[in-house]
Design a protein that fits this description.
This protein has about 475 residues and is an alpha/beta fold. The protein is built from 19 helices and 15 strands. Helix 5 links the parallel strand 6 and strand 7 (about 140-145). The structure holds iron/sulfur cluster.
Length: about 475
Amino acid sequence: MNNLYLKSFIRCKRKAWLDYKGDKSYKIWSPHQSIEIVHRYKNFYKLCEGDLYAGTKACQKGTNGVIGLKVKSKLINNIRAEIHPQLIKRVSGQSKWGNYKYIPVVYKLGHRTTKEQLFDLAFCSILLEPFQESKIENGFVISNYSNDLNVEKIDLNQKLRKKVLNLFLNLNEYLKGSIPEITDDRKKCTLCSWQKFCNSEAKNNGYLTDIDGIGSKTAFLLQKNGISNIKELAAAKKNELGETLFQFKEQKFEKASKFINQSKSYLSGIPIRIYDKEYLSNLFSNKDSGFLIFDIESNPDEKHDFLYGFLKVNNLFEKVEDNLYDPILNLKKNDRKAHQQIFQKLFSKEYLPVLHYGETEKIAILDLARQLDLDSKEIEILKSRFIDLHLVIRGSWILPIRNYSLKTVANWMGFKWKQKNVSGSKALYWWIQYETTLNDIFLKKIIKYNRDDCLATLKIAKWLIKNNKNMN
Ligand code: SF4
């Protein structure tokens, strides 16, 4: 039993069980986790001013930071425990090695310090104390925003240690039992390496949280009212269901109708058209004018959009030639040359409508326009040219899918990305590797991925036009 299982257990009981007993061939590689590891190492190196080594020998030598340490011991009820601290940092004190001791350190990517990080520090300190023969009063949670290293000191008091030991006993009991249920909070699954395994089980069992817009709270409410799976939801009566969805206030009947239709479509595999012309009209009125299709790749932690990809099509149904795609790299944050290129593209000859998927692209361009002091009239004209296909699809169709991300929607429509298992997080992982190695191979992968994202957006636009014709 180690601190890694404990961390998983805090996130999702099933994850801890799967990490311990599951068939690892079902696990998928998580770019998010890899990004965290790269950032973590960089920041540990910075915190320890480069004096960072691995293993027990490094402790004996008294290096500033030690990674890759494993410590084993027996805890309450004689249960064997092991820790793999992310980092231990040398501080003043007295230990079996001399006039210094170590305290545990964890790295966090986001802004919030989580229970997972606090418990990890507390658990590591419990095993580290006998190992180094010295008390530990504090640990550090470190983070980095805009290149500033932040160090948060955590008091590893008795209350926290008691809580973590109780959790450890609880984990031990869970691991003896059979596989726990899929978590109610399916948002947690997005970054989990077991998501494929759990998604297929959820689908087979008709889990309510597989329906777009149903989170753990709504699922619980539905269950309380006798609806426990998608089949039952699809058969529900709109008015009766609406009354139970009181938390949506005046939208409760609209929501009820959406959930019922989404369930029907999910079960049958057949899309359902919502007759709302408003969303489609902008796309249709411009369908013969040609389009710019636009997609950004970015590093959200650094607020850095490193690639702006534009695909120009004169006609939605023409064959897309390679030279119609133009990737504008913004290798250094706020590169004026890249920004000028973007606006040249946007304002070249004709003012084409700009197709994109999700709000990020529009927000990013309007922010840039303000930074470049475009006058308000020009900004308004620019704003009116953006057509968000995510809004269009959600406003006009119910599709037999779990969510309406670009990947899920375009995949369902038959689009295939040329590179396997790609995602925005993977593109970000390539970007981080490019920043470290300056190897152009990573830029090429990002560009290829971004071009496919533009083509996937085009696929959605074509589908919308084609299927609207079929409806008329
Ligand atoms: S995919 Fe979701 S339910 Fe499955 S282990 Fe991960 S977090 Fe838990």
